[in-house]
């Protein structure tokens, strides 16, 4: 029996799906790292804000109440957690569906159209939630430095947390979505398919052999 080369069926689709899977994996990694940065940022912002100079005689409770509104990362934590959880779940669905699709492709069991549709839906939804996620970044943090001499507050500013990893992840999700559409629309046709194009025995010859046996 002639050995089938698993790369000869849907070759372009297999390569593109592999690239999409790689990009999604990198996106998931970047978003996890972004979350770690975010969590570490919360106590840092609080400590930095409490490092301001307040009026003499103010209690710790009053200090905390004063800076509470300035702790934007902490105030947005619940919203951030919900968005990030949905985003990571959608990317995992896409990643797993593509892995399953690749296994089916290499095993010559399916053209992975169903898995690609699932991935396209998951990525399109992830783009929507990713846009909301990037739009809801914490703003700059400020703290009060009270001047006893001048008798008024001086504002010190701490720049917002960097969302560079989030933006790179979003760009990769967008590229993955476009490649996914290409894999589904442009590279979904079989070219030089081994299974379809392999030579089968002449059915007419088989039919003649059967008739000869029956006529004996």
Automatic annotation (TrEMBL):
Keywords: Membrane, Transmembrane, Transmembrane helix
Transmembrane segments annotated in the record for this chain: 15-36, 79-100, 120-139, 167-183
Protein name listed in UniProt: Transmembrane protein
Organism ancestry: Bacteria, Bacillati, Mycoplasmatota, Mollicutes, Mycoplasmataceae
């Amino acid at each position: 029996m002639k050995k089938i080369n698993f790369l000869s069926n849907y070759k372009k689709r297999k390569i593109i799906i592999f690239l999409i899977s790689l990009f999604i994996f990198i996106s998931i990694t970047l978003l996890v790292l972004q979350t770690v940065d975010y969590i570490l940022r919360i106590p840092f912002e609080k400590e930095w804000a409490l490092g301001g100079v307040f009026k003499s005689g103010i209690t710790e409770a009053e200090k905390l109440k004063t800076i509470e509104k300035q702790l934007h990362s902490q105030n947005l934590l619940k919203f951030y957690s919900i968005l990030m959880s949905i985003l990571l779940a959608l990317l995992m669905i896409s990643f797993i569906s593509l892995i399953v699709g690749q296994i089916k492709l290499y095993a010559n069991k399916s053209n992975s159209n169903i898995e690609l549709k699932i991935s396209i839906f998951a990525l399109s939804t992830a783009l929507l939630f990713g846009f909301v996620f990037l739009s809801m970044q914490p703003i700059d943090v400020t703290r009060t430095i009270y001047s006893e001499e001048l008798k008024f507050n001086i504002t010190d500013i701490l720049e917002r947390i960097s969302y560079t990893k989030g933006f790179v992840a979003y760009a990769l999700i967008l590229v993955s979505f476009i490649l996914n559409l290409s894999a589904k629309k442009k590279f979904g046709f079989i070219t030089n398919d081994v299974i379809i194009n392999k030579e089968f025995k002449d059915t007419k010859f088989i039919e003649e052999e059967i008739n000869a046996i029956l006529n004996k």
